Amino acid sequence: MMNTPLRIGICGLGTVGQAVVRLLREEGDTLARRAPRPLEISALGMRAPKPGFDPGTLPVHTDVLAVARDPAVDVVVELMGGTDDAKTLVELALAEGKAVVTANKALLSEHGDALFAAATAKGVPLAFEAAVAGGIPIIKALREGLAGNRIEWLAGIINGTSNFILTEMASAGRAFEDVLKEAQALGYAEADPTFDVEGIDAAHKLSLLASMAFGVPIASAKVFSEGLARVTPEDFRYAEAFGYRIKPLALARRRDAGLELRVHPALVPADALFAQVNGVQNAVMVGGHAVGPTLYVGAGAGGDATASAVVADLMDLARSTLGAMPPLAYRAEAQGSAPALPSAAFQAPAYLRILAEDAPGVLAQVATLISAQGINIEALMQKAQDSVAVDGITYVPIVLLTRTAEEAAIDRAIAALESLPAVRGSVLRLRVESFGA
Ligand SMILES: NC(=O)c1ccc[n+]([C@@H]2O[C@H](COP(=O)([O-])OP(=O)(O)OC[C@H]3O[C@@H](n4cnc5c(N)ncnc54)[C@H](OP(=O)(O)O)[C@@H]3O)[C@@H](O)[C@H]2O)c1
After folding, report:
1. Superfamily designation of domain 345-432
2. What CATH number does the domain located at 6-131 have?
3. CATH class of 139-300+324-343
4. Contacts of 388 (CB under 8 A, 6+ apart)
5. How far apart are CA 353 and CA 252, in angstroms?
6. Which of 161, 171, 175, 157 is nearest to 231 (CA)?
7. Using an 8 Å Cβ cutoff, are 309 and 103 in contact?
8. CA-proximal residue: ligand 1, atom 12 (nearest)
9. Which of 10, 79, 101 has the most ligand 1 atoms within 8 A of CB, as the residue to mutate?
10. How many percent of the chain have pLDDT more than 90?
11. pLDDT-based confidence at 437, cuts 50/70/90?
12. Å from CA of 81 to ligand 1 middle
């Protein structure tokens, strides 16, 4: 005798919603053999017909809230995006005692703690595998595969648009603005690319990962973020000469005083696995105390890849393997309410590019100001062929790598350098990361 189906209401029939419907329709029989209950779409929530999408005989509600109230729905799948209507829908679905699956990192990053509390109070799961790194099962890895570990750090390339832009800049020597326009034309970047190139989207995802990894409330996982716009094609050349590539990195690391949570372009060793993750691909590395570093790579976006993660959550629900726990409860032993550290307390080596007058003694002045902050220089480069003349004065970039230093000291060194008469404009600082070191 067939068990009762898990009845699914899908709200938002855009790129991901349609891909989920397609996957469930095409693979329904196979999925039914893998779970004790078949997955059945019992309602769709869409406010207007979608060109090219045929709902067939599926019941359609034009008001998504009717899906949450529909007694023929066991689980509401929220694939609308945004933080207003989506919040109302998820709150109502939970209040109705229905499980929820969402791909919405912005919603969970902003309102996750309250929504997970509501889910826990009702004893229903709120699943979100698709909200971080698209098709890569990183939430499941943290929740289940790494359950025996204390997580020490995690690092990710978790915004495909940023990775596409930096990959193109590196391989074709093109400027940021130019590649951004191409990313928009290809549909990788939104018309307003701020969320991607300023690191906001990656910060949303990192706050969810940090909550899972360190057992902190999402609201306390305050992420520092810095965008890509100041990186120039020359920086890729200098990085290469030092043995590094430049990647859009999201990083969470446990320190004694709290958590470092940051999103920014970073130099990573050219031979690191991360350095090979190119284009719109995503990757996440997790360092567990028992297992050591682990790496997860794959498609971080796209309808089908994201649908893969949504359906994985639905399969977990059909198998009843998802409890009603908020993400932080998975590591309740962990950091408690440990604060997110201010950027001044971050520790990392730095890459500095300083445009300085090409004159005797300037290099020594630069080195002296950096040493005065207790910072050691690891490597230094100055290439006469990169010199530029401005108002009759010749300037040449001094490019250097420091050893690991507290960011407050680097900040002071940069301020001192920028006040030198021989230094023109602002100093570019990028952070250097070698994962787990
Ligand atoms: N696309 C990806 O690669 C990807 C990857 C990971 C996660 N996600 C997440 O998945 C979610 C969906 O993304 P998407 O790319 O599929 O977006 P999308 O193509 O813009 O689709 C969103 C759909 O939701 C509908 N919608 C929005 N508000 C609604 C409301 N109040 N009532 C009814 N329908 C509503 C829209 O309908 P209208 O056309 O009527 O406005 C649209 O069809 C987002 O949270 C996104 O962050 C996407």
Report:
1. ACT domain (3.30.70.260)
2. 3.40.50.720
3. alpha beta
4. 355, 394, 395, 396
5. 25
6. 175
7. yes
8. 79
9. 79
10. 87
11. very low
12. 5
Pick the closest to residue 135 from 309, 358, 373 (CA basis). 309
Q: What is the pLDDT of residue 191?
A: 77
In short, whether 130's Cβ falls inside 6 Å of ligand 1 is: yes
Asked if residue 116 lies in contact with residue 128, where contact means CB atoms within 8 angstroms, the answer is no
Read off the amino acid at residue 304: D
Residues of the chain with CATH 3.30.360.10: 139-300+324-343
Residue 20, amino acid: V
Which residues are the active-site residues?
205
Alpha helix (H) ranges present in 217-288? Answer: 233-242
Centre of ligand 1 to C-alpha 430, Å, is 34
How many Å apart are CA 268 and CA 432, to the nearest integer? 6
Q: Is 87 in the pocket of ligand 1 (CB under 6 A)?
A: no
Mean pLDDT calculated for residue range 332-360: 86
Q: Which residues of 60-86 are buried (b: 16+ CB within 10 A; e: fewer)?
A: ebeebbbbbbbeebbbbbbbbbeeebb
CB atoms within 10 A of CB 408: 15
Report pLDDT digits (tens) over 183-231: 989 888 777 899 999 999 999 999 999 999 998 888 888 999 999 999 9
Mutate to test the pocket of ligand 1, among 10, 11, 16, 201 (most ligand atoms within 8 A of CB): 16
Mean pLDDT across the chain: 93
Out of 10, 11, 13, 15, mutate this one to test ligand 1's pocket (max ligand atoms within 8 Å of CB): namely 15
Residue 352 confidence (pLDDT): 98
Is the C-beta atom of 10 inside 6 A of ligand 1?
Answer: no
Give helix 233-242 / helix 160-172 axis angle, nearest 10°: 80
Whose CA is closest to atom 6 on ligand 1?
134
Would you say 163 and 277 are in contact if contact means Cβ atoms under 8 Å apart?
Answer: yes
CB of 161 sitting under 6 A from ligand 1: no
Both tokens assigned to 201:
């989207």
Where do you find CATH 3.40.50.720 in the chain? 6-131
φ, ψ for residue 63 (rounded to 5)? Answer: -105, 115
Per-residue pLDDT tens for 130-157? 999 999 999 999 999 999 999 999 999 9
